[in-house]
Design brief:
- By secondary structure, the protein is an alpha/beta fold.
- It has two domains: about 160 residues, Rossmann fold (3-Layer(aba) Sandwich), CATH 3.40.50.10950; about 150 residues, Rossmann fold, CATH 3.40.50.10750.
- It contains 13 helices and eleven strands.
- It has a six-stranded mixed beta sheet, sandwiched between helices.
- Helix 2 packs across helix 13, helix 6 packs across helix 7 and helix 8 packs across helix 9.
- The protein is globular and about 65 Å long.
- It starts with a helix and ends with a helix.
Length: about 325
């Protein structure tokens, strides 16, 4: 069973309501029909029904999902505006302009439990999706920033979690400081556990293993490891270590000076910066033919996924499955 099949089985047990703020986009509509038709989720599209119906007739590709909400005329709009303005001591006129925006309205739905999660980004940059989610939903307790992870299925690789590895953060934070890197490690461990049911074994990567090199970049990873362990003593987190030490037991036995429950068995890899994470992910994907799922946003109090603006309907379905399963946890 591949990752998408596993998620589909879980999602069908209790289909979550997923809100799509870019509901007028035809790719979103196609993905929503698939999600609803297969019983994977209960899609809620934001936008103007008449605009959507015109587009559907022009394409002749099926009916619209049942639930469509126009934020400007929603009966929940006033409640959302009042809530948002009270929390920030903000004038109503300003709050209305913010909350009426589809991204913000969708995030307020998620915050209030009117939707289990949000999938957006096919018509908005990542920064806008993150900003709306941060403003409206906020972060998990103890987490200070949004980050992302990528799930890789590597053919012929027996390590990680049955050949699967999570990479973080390959898409959001260019150069996290030690505190931020620690939060990325903790958020990613939670994602691995909540989404995939793994017992996360988290390795913070460096070009050094247990002090084999001395440099400020190594010091950052060492400090991040210690902070992550202090904040989440229940998680298996180790570092600093090189990638081969993290993934191969034969190498770990040679390079590690002390016993580790992570080294040689890591299923979650935390890269020290965006450069290393993004480059490594693309190299693994292209050189090994690995299947890649994501990037998926994490760190928010409720599930949110960001789409590429070139996403296909199948990409949207995959992202929605991840959000739907995380909404169940």
């Amino acid at each position: 069973m591949n990752v998408m099949e596993y998620l589909a089985v879980k999602a069908k047990k209790s289909p979550a309501a997923i809100v799509f703020p870019e509901g007028e986009n035809p790719v979103i509509q196609e993905a929503s029909r698939k999600l609803a038709g297969q019983g994977l989720a209960r899609p809620i599209l934001l936008g103007n029904r008449k605009v959507m119906q015109k587009g559907t007739k022009a394409q002749s590709n099926g009916r619209l999902p049942r639930e469509i909400i126009d934020p400007s005329s929603s009966p929940e709009l006033e409640r959302y505006i009042e809530q948002y303005c009270q929390e920030r001591d903000m004038p109503r006129t300003v709050g209305k302009k913010i909350v009426t925006q589809p991204l913000c309205f969708a995030a307020m739905m998620v915050k209030n439990g009117d939707a289990g999660g949000m999938v957006a980004g096919i018509a908005h940059p990542t920064e806008d999706v993150i900003m709306a989610s941060e403003l409206m939903i906020g972060f998990q307790p103890g987490i200070s920033l949004a980050s992302s992870f990528l799930l890789m299925e590597v053919p012929g690789f027996g390590g990680g979690e049955d050949g699967r590895i999570i990479f973080a953060d390959p898409a959001v934070n260019p150069d996290p400081d030690p505190e931020q890197l620690a939060d990325i490690a903790i958020s990613t461990a939670h994602s691995a556990r909540d989404l995939l049911g793994w017992e996360p074994r988290v390795a913070l990567l460096s070009f050094s293993t247990q002090g084999s090199a001395s440099h400020a970049m190594v010091d950052k990873v060492v400090k991040a490891t210690n902070l992550a362990r202090q904040k989440a003593p229940d998680l298996l987190i180790d570092g600093e270590m090189q990638a081969d030490t993290a993934l191969f037991e034969s190498v770990a036995l040679k390079k590690m000076d002390s016993e580790s429950l992570v080294a040689g068995r890591a299923n979650v890899l935390i890269f020290p910066d965006l450069n290393s994470g993004n480059i490594s992910a693309k190299l693994v994907q292209r050189l090994s033919g690995a299947a890649s799922f994501g990037p998926v946003l994490q760190g928010f109090a409720r599930p949110v996924s960001d789409l590429s603006r070139g996403a296909t309907a199948e990409d949207v379905v995959g992202a929605s499955l991840m959000v739907a399963v995380k909404a169940m946890s």
